[in-house]
Amino acid sequence: xxxxxxxxxxxxxxxxxxxxxxxxxxxxxxxxxxxxxxxxxxxxxxxxxxxxxxxxxxxxxxxxxxxxxxxxxxxxxxxxxxxxxxxxxxxxxxxxxxxxxxxxxxxxxxxxxxxxxxxxxxxxxxxxxxxxxxxxxxxxxxxxxxxxxxxxxxxxxxxxxxxxxxxxxxxxxxxxxxxxxxxxxxxxxxxxxxxxxxxxxxxxxxxxxxxxxxxxxxxxxxxxxxxxxxxxxxxxxxxxxxxxxxxxxxxxxxxxxxxxxxxxxxxxxxxxxxxxxxxxxxxxxxxxxxxxxxxxxxxxxxxxxxxxxxxxxxxxxxxxxxxxxxxxxxxxxxxxxxxxxxxxxxxxxxxxxxxxxxxxxxxxxxxxxxxxxxxxxxxxxxxxxxxxxxxxxxxxxxxxxxxxxxxxxxxxxxxxxxxxxxxxxxxxxxxxxxxxxxxxxxxxxxxxxxxxxxxxxxxxxxxxxxxxxxxxxxxxxxxxxxxxxxxxxxxxxxxxxxxxxxxxxxxxxxxxxxxxxxxxxxxxxxxxxxxxxxxxxxxxxxxxxxxxxxxxxxxxxxxxxxxxxxxxxxxxxxxxxxxxxxxxxxxxxxxxxxxxxxxxxxxxxxxxxxxxxxxxxxxxxxxxxxxxxxxxxxxxxxxxxxxxxxxxxx
Length: 650
Fold this sequence. Notes:
Structural class: alpha+beta
CATH superfamily of the largest domain: Histidine kinase-like ATPase, C-terminal domain
Number of strands: 24
């Protein structure tokens, strides 16, 4: 503190605000939802916006799982309105005993009100907390509920969760069902723009999980009106065929079982392919349990036990020094596990993990018994699976040796990698950044232009190995990948530890040409397959260097797209005869260190794109198509999208 400034003493009584009974506020009705929307829908961003749709859809899906609804229709309407209709029983409308209001109004405007807390209305349900549609009502500037029931049509409208009139009859109908229309509130959400592809992907998944239900999507926001529909009578078996359609499958017949065990519905399907990745999707009451849980544990246990028994029976044990591990039997596996539980116990607010112990017993028993029969009936498929598992076991041992070599090398070299990694001086991961740069030329400019305290530079020579086509032991023999693994500090594969990551910003910085795009895609494939937690935790970014530098006299501007260039050129051309110089940057090496810092590395000016995974299933399929061994799916993809390609070689 400077000597000429005296510290002002503040009485303790003035430092603390009052905290008495008058400071305790009671938020009534749906006020808590509008006050703290993130508690109910996760965020007020894009995810939270789409969560409104999922909450309403969940109610319709619950009607379908209960056997009452056969058709669900979602419509994108003008003015960012969403309409969702089902042909279920329809929300009751008679007066509710506790609230003295219509049951419809109670459900729409009261938290924790619904038919899923007791009684026999729903044996299984996804929307178990009863906050779904009332939260949607609260976070909508306007909404309307219409119910077809007992030969009548009833309706009520709401503004920010408040009823505008009592539930009233508005017509006659010989159908049953519920329609919810809502308009998300711009006071709550940062952006209100529903993504059709995101909705389609979610509803496709729900249609797979709800056997026989028809789900329609209509988008009338623009002409011509878009229409798409799903109906899968095969349930999860159809799901597996969809997930594996671009793979070279080992089995002629996918495994499938749909059976109830002590009140728990178990539906499981799987197929093996000749790839190395494992894809396991687990669901409880149609809710995607991203972190697995007891049902996934039960499946893994049954699979490992039965395949080891089959290997012994077929005489494979002579070639094995020990049993096949869980990792061995899951290499190349694509599986979907779905359970229907009366009282599911989810761990965490996001319902990402199932905790019911009885679900493990049910899945393990059902799958174990059915898999024995499957292997006896399709013994040739069984032998192909075991051969695949044996190959995985051999690769596991080779990978362990290679991994230990890499980690030992990293420890000996102190993670400094002389001549390759130019590290930053900071040892705080929170403020440290790693720029993965294409080539020595760009690497030289980046090293000179960087902030040495917080920014590290790792130049890569040429194109790294395509990990989609290689096993981990071969991957770790690649010099460039080995350098990257050691630089990150997390190790790789089963030794991966996110807590040891050395940088919280990992930036892919490649040239704006075909080679640069290819290198970036190879790196993205590496991170997606072997460092997915780095992406999930938000540590991976893509740099956006400028495409052009426009100069008029001593004035210059950087632009990042073709459209920006055209706009800037017109603006600079106005009322002037001075010639405008245009410099096109095809490579980062063409920039001097100051330019690279100003445009691409300076936190005050740069543009970075965070890499996220919105839909793991779609991402997995796309990596298989574009980077996998099979040429056919890639050729079909290119032919299908050839006419819509933009900036093939920018």
